[in-house]
Design a protein that fits this description.
single chain; about 230 residues; alpha+beta; 7-stranded mixed beta sheet; 3-stranded antiparallel beta sheet; 12 strands; about 30% helix; disordered N terminus
Length: about 230
């Protein structure tokens, strides 16, 4: 596996590439996460963004580079309905393939990359005897409300990721929906990475939370260690 460190001096060039990519992906084009269930979607007209990362984002870029995480910074964007993509990036390589992942806040991306490297990969080898090949997600950014409320979901700010399955190099596919309560080794694997997620993210929701989360883990940076 070859990993490239982020070069701070290339920020502007990469940002322009990110802008081109983002211009073709309006709010509804990103796969909608289901962490809070589907709810009424706010109107979200897209506008051109500006590349003006905060000091925290620049530090985050540096931290990701030191961790050998490949990514593209994305321009800040505001949408009608209160949705936004601020200090977001596009993850390119976290040491395993990740599907359906759109813009994510840099801080969340860093936590997700570390969780993948130090929790998911290790748990796959320990409990399942195989290496991790791919993480399947239901998406990240989605301009919508929390189900049953008028409050915006963390997905509406690119601050949440929904993870549904893990594919191993030996071909096995472990899903939250089918293996949360089925298969001893698979259950141990999911329980271990769930527990690790609770130590890294602000909010972690699993099938233990409610029926809307029966098929995925919801990971976001809000809250204060809320874990279900």
């Amino acid at each position: 596996m070859t990993m490239k460190s982020y070069n701070v001096r290339q920020t502007r060039a990469v940002a322009l590439l990110g802008l081109v990519s983002l211009m073709v992906s309006a709010c509804g084009a990103i796969p909608a996460g289901s962490s809070s269930g589907q709810s009424q979607r706010p109107q979200a007209s897209a506008g051109l963004g500006s590349f003006n990362p905060t000091a925290a984002a620049r530090q985050c870029y540096s931290d990701l580079g030191k961790a050998n995480v490949r990514f593209s910074p994305l321009p800040n964007r505001q949408f009608s309905g209160g949705c936004s993509q601020i200090d977001s990036i596009k993850l390119l390589d976290v040491g395993a393939d990740v599907t359906n992942l759109g813009p994510v806040k840099c801080e969340l991306a860093g936590k997700f990359a570390a969780w993948t490297e130090y929790a998911v990969k290790r748990a796959a080898r320990k409990y399942l005897g195989s290496d991790l090949k791919r993480i399947e997600t239901m998406g990240s950014y989605s301009c919508r409300n929390i189900a049953g409320s008028g409050k915006l979901s963390q997905h509406a700010h690119a601050n949440a990721i929904d993870v549904s399955a893990f594919v191993l190099t030996d071909g096995r596919r472990i899903t939250v929906e089918n293996n949360w309560k089925s298969g001893r080794q698979e259950m141990q694997f999911l329980a271990a990475i769930h527990d690790s997620a609770c130590k890294r993210f602000g909010t972690v929701l699993s099938p233990n939370y409610n029926a809307a989360h029966r098929d995925h883990f919801h990971l976001d940076m809000s809250g204060n260690g809320y874990c279900r």
